[in-house]
Amino acid sequence: MKTRILSLGIAMVFCATFLPAQGRGGGGQRGGGGGQGTAVGQGQQRGGQMGSPSAQGTRQGDQDRDRIRATDQQRDRLQTCDQTADQLRTQARQMARDASGNRFNTDQSRQQRDQLREHLQTMQQEHQQLMSGLSEQQRESLQNRIQQMDQVRDRVNNQFQQMDHALNAENPNAAQVRKQAREMEKSMKQWQNEYRKMQKDMGA
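The structure assignment produced for this chain is given below.
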């Protein structure tokens, strides 16, 4: 009897010592797993806040366009300038064709020259109205585009003067008239492209 009582007491002491230690060990493992999950979650959150470079670039581009977005009036003027440039380009191309070979007629070419002058003056006025209607921020952001337009405009004016000089001669040279008309057509195409790029820049 004494032996059984002694054995039972030893077993109870063993259980009281071993089982609590095992419980504490399991709890420590669960706590460690929770800490790891928290660290991963924080890392993902920081990654989401930073965002990818492409996403940041897209947002920056949208913000830039919003700052220089065209008003309704500017949108209408851009479309008008685009259409006038297209008309001038078409007229210059037709003039070059009419000055080819035996089809050249001095009176006809001079009439075409006068029509070109009238449309060019109209376009210059429309262009000036567009430029004067830009805000300071728009002008600064579109500075390179405006400079490109100014260069093309100067080239067109010079080409028209050369054409005018050729047709004012006593015996106009068809080859010279045709050359200037073709060059003017190319320049008007470039000017029209600049208007369309500006429309895109300004979200129009």
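Interim note for the steering committee: Helices lie at 2-50, 53-67, 72-98, 106-132, 136-141, 143-167, 174-201. The longest helix spans residues 2-50.
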